[in-house]
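Researcher: Go.
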Amino acid sequence: MSPTSQENTDVSAAIDAELQLMDPAVRASRSLATRLLDPEFVEVGASGRRWTYEEMLAALPDLDGGGGGGEDGPRFEPSGMGGVVLAPGIVHLTYETVIDGRRARRSSLWRRRDGETGWRMYYHQATPVPAGD
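Model: Structure:
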């Protein structure tokens, strides 16, 4: 496989994993979410709150964006998702979401360690977009 083809494959895999984390079924399942979050995971949310791996796993089923703990709750509407390979095993994704009329710009770092087949989110940050921007 050519380097460009491998990079495209890696970015696509990270995008797929990012979208899985928005699925209410994944957010409600600790075992599924554990497969997608790196044990060293950190998030700085749109509220400014810093989340650790354990804090996120505990809160994920009830957070806005994935159905609010059920299929009927508000869900993220992602757009403009794209990514680049920063180094072997590291993908940076950027995109925007809308939920209940609130927009946020998002950035995620995904990594795949040697010997692992799956990608895991290592870092995530959400920044609110001011109204009218």
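Model: The radius of gyration is 15 Å.
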